[in-house]
Write a structure and sequence with these properties.
The chain has 491 residues and is an all-beta fold. It has one helix and 31 strands.
C-alpha cells in the first residue's frame, strides 16, 4: 500500500525557468501540502548524492517559522540529471501519507550503501512541543531511490539532536565496507558531537559516541577514504578565541572509537546583510578517488574588515594535516560581493591533481544592502585540477529578493546548506538549490504577518549536460590575509 501510494506521487518534471538564469533550470519538486501551521509552496535546504548514474536529492517541504517542515521531499534521477521523479517520505510526520508520529521533519541528507544496495535519507523528527525532543532518523530505498519505506531510529532517547549527516563506506577493499556513519550533535548538551554506525544498511544503529576530547560543534559531514578511514569535518564550538572553528575528527576502526578533534582553521565569519538565514560557516566536505578530502566554507579573512565573505578551501590526505586556507577565485579581493551557503561536488572517479570539482553557492552582487534591497543570486564555478585553478564563475539563478524566501527565527531561509553532485565520470555537474519567486498577495513569504500569502519557493537543478566541469586558469595564489576576526566563543 505504501509503495502504490508513493508511486502515485511520481512525476517526470520538465518545468523550466529561464527568466532567472543564464542557464535553463528544471524544477524537480513542488510543495503539495496545505496544513495551516506552516508556510506553503515552500521547499528549502536540499542535499544530494550521486552513485553511478543515479542522483537522489532530499529537502524540507512546507517550512515552519520556528523550525522544521511539514515533511521531507525527495527527487531522484536515474540518468544523471536528465529527468527526475519526486515524492515525499511516508510515515514521518502527522501530515505524511501514511502519517507518522512526528510533528515536523528537518535537516535531510542523502547517502548510498553499495554493499547493501540501499539509498538512505537521514533527517530529524521533531516532537511536540517544538522545540523539545528531536530524534535522528533514516528512511531507506531498495529500488534505486524510487520508493521509500518508514523511518528507522538512529538516535531516539528524549534528547534534542541537530544537524545530522550520513555517509557510507562504498569501497569494496575497505575492511569496513558497508558501514554507514551518521553525525549529529546533542543540542541538549551544548552541541556535543556524536557519531552512530550501522552495518546492516541502516536498519539498526549503534550507540551514539562522542569524540575522544568530547568536542562540541555542528554541521559535520563524514567522508570515507578507500582504506575505510572516516574523516568528519565540522564547525567547532570549543575555541576560547573564535566563535567558530573548522575542525575535524576521524575513526580508523569502523566507528568503534573516534579521535580527538583537529583544527583545520579558525572560522572568520561575516553574517550577510539582509536578514537572510546564513548564521554559521557550515563546512561542506567531499572526497576524491585517491582519498583526498576537500572542505569549503564561507570566510571573510581575505576581505578588509571582514566586510563580506569568499568561499575558501582546505584539503587533507589523512584528516590530521590540512593545507593552508585558499580563497576560491569567484571574484577578486575587494569586489564587494558576498558569498555564502555553499555546496561542493567532487567527482569520486577522479584523483587528487586531476580531481574534478564543482561548487554552487548563493551570493549578493552588492554586499552593502538591506532586507529590502539585497539581490540574491546563485553561482557556479568548477576546477579540473583539484582546486589548483578554477573556471570563470557563472550565474545560475537570480536576482531574487530576500523576503521571497520563507521567514524563520534566524531570517529568511533558502537553506543552511545546498548541494552539488557529479555522477562519477560525467563531465557535468548537477546542483540542487532553492529558487524563490515573488509571493502572491504579499511582499514577503511570512504567513504570520500576511496570512493569505502564497509563496513560490521550490527546488531546482540545471538541465543535463548544461553545467560543464571545464576548469580554467583563475587562481588566488598568495592572496594576503587581510584580517583575522578573533571573536571569542565565550563572549
Amino acid at each position: 500500500a505504501i509503495a502504490s501510494f508513493i508511486l502515485s506521487l511520481l512525476f517526470v518534471l520538465s518545468y523550466t525557468l529561464v527568466a532567472f538564469a543564464n542557464e535553463p533550470l528544471t524544477r524537480i519538486s513542488s510543495d503539495p501540502y496545505t496544513n495551516p501551521d506552516s508556510m506553503h509552496k515552500t521547499e528549502v535546504e536540499p542535499d544530494s548524492f550521486a552513485f553511478g548514474n543515479t542522483i537522489v536529492s532530499a529537502f524540507q517541504v512546507g517550512r515552519f517559522f520556528n523550525g522544521g517542515a511539514t515533511n521531507i521531499g525527495w527527487a531522484t534521477s536515474t540518468n544523471g540529471g536528465g529527468t527526475w521523479v519526486h515524492g515525499f517520505l511516508p510515515n514521518t510526520t502527522v501530515n505524511a501519507k501514511p502519517p507518522g508520529i512526528y510533528a515536523r521533519a528537518s535537516d535531510s541528507s542523502v547517502a548510498y550503501d553499495a554493499k547493501h544496495k540501499v539509498w538512505l535519507i537521514s533527517y530529524l523528527g521533531l516532537k511536540n512541543p517544538v522545540p523539545s525532543v528531536v530524534d535522528v532518523l533514516v528512511s531507506r530505498s531498495t529500488d534505486g531511490g524510487l520508493t521509500w519505506g518508514p523511518p528507522f531510529a538512529v538516535a531516539a532517547n528524549g534528547q534534542f539532536y541537530d544537524k545530522n549527516w550520513t555517509a557510507c563506506d562504498n569501497s569494496s577493499s575497505s575492511p569496513h565496507f558497508g558501514n554507514c556513519y551518521t553525525e549529529f550533535d546533542n543540542a541538549s548538551n551544548n552541541d556535543l558531537e556524536q557519531m552512530s554506525t550501522s552495518s546492516d544498511g541502516g536498519l539498526t544503529w549503534g550507540p551514539a559516541k562522542p569524540t575522544a576530547d568530547m568536542s562540541h560543534g555542528l554541521g559535520g559531514q563524514p567522508v570515507v577514504q578507500p582504506n575505510g578511514t572516516v574523516i568528519v569535518p565540522y564547525m567547532g564550538l570549543d575555541s576560547p578565541f573564535f566563535a567558530f572553528t573548522i575542525s575535524s575528527f576521524m575513526s580508523t576502526d569502523g566507528g568503534a572509537t573516534w579521535s580527538a578533534s583537529t583544527l583545520v582553521s579558525e572560522g572568520d565569519f561575516h553574517h550577510p546583510n539582509g536578514n537572510i538565514r546564513a548564521s554559521f560557516p557550515i563546512p561542506d566536505a567531499e572526497i576524491d578517488k585517491s582519498g583526498k578530502v576537500y572542505v569549503v566554507w564561507s570566510d571573510c579573512r581575505f576581505e578588509a574588515s571582514c566586510a563580506y565573505s569568499d568561499i575558501v578551501l582546505s584539503t587533507s590526505k589523512n584528516g590530521t594535516t590540512w593545507t593552508p586556507v585558499k580563497r576560491i577565485p569567484i571574484n577578486p579581493v575587494g569586489s564587494n560581493v558576498d558569498h555564502f551557503i555553499n555546496g561542493l561536488a567532487v567527482d569520486s572517479s577522479t584523483p587528487s591533481k586531476s580531481a574534478h570539482l564543482g561548487l554552487t553557492y548563493y551570493f549578493y552582487p552588492n554586499a552593502n544592502c538591506t532586507t529590502s534591497t539585497c539581490k540574491l543570486d546563485v553561482g557556479f564555478i568548477s576546477s579540473t585540477n583539484g582546486g589548483a585553478s578554477w573556471s570563470k564563475a557563472e550565474q545560475l539563478a537570480g536576482p531574487m529578493m530576500v523576503p521571497w524566501a520563507p521567514l524563520t527565527t534566524q531570517g529568511y531561509m533558502v537553506g543552511d546548506y545546498i548541494s552539488t553532485s557529479i555522477a562519477p565520470g560525467d563531465n557535468d555537474a548537477t546542483p540542487v538549490f532553492a529558487v524563490a519567486q515573488q509571493p502572491t498577495g504579499a511582499p514577503a513569504c511570512d504567513s504570520a504577518t500576511y496570512p493569505t500569502v502564497v509563496c513560490h519557493v521550490a527546488i531546482y537543478s540545471t538541465q543535463e549536460d548544461i553545467l560543464q566541469i571545464v576548469g580554467g586558469t583563475n587562481t588566488s595564489t598568495n592572496a594576503p590575509v587581510a584580517t583575522t576576526h578573533r571573536t571569542s566563543a565565550a563572549s
